Amino acid sequence: MKKENIKALFVESISDPRLIAQIGRETGVKPAGELFSDSLSDAQGPAPTYLAMMRANTTALTQAVKGQ
Questions:
Q1: Where are the alpha helices (DSSP H) in 1-68?
Q2: Rounded to a whole number, what is the distance in angstroms from the first to the last CA of the chain?
Q3: What secondary structure does DSSP assign to 53-67, as a single string?
């Protein structure tokens, strides 16, 4: 991770976040949020539709690249 200069980790919305949290602790790279890959959120969540899912993922990725 250090060799590749990785700055952010993401957890998928349908997976257990504990592994990403452990990798973050061991490498010093902070988890940067949740990505929706195989499912949508509920109606009140950030990704209730396919278009909203794409927007939520794009926002999470661009914020991580910018270091936010």
A1: 18-27, 50-65
A2: 19
A3: HHHHHHHHHHHHHTT
| Secondary element (H or E) of residue 31 | strand 31-35
Asked if residue 21 lies in contact with residue 31, where contact means CB atoms within 8 angstroms, the answer is yes
For residue 9, list its beta bridge partners: 31
Contact 37, 13 (CB under 8 A): yes
Q: pLDDT tens track of the chain, all 68 residues?
A: 778 888 889 988 888 889 999 999 999 998 888 899 878 888 998 899 999 999 999 999 999 888 76
Closest CA to 6 of 30, 25, 22: 30
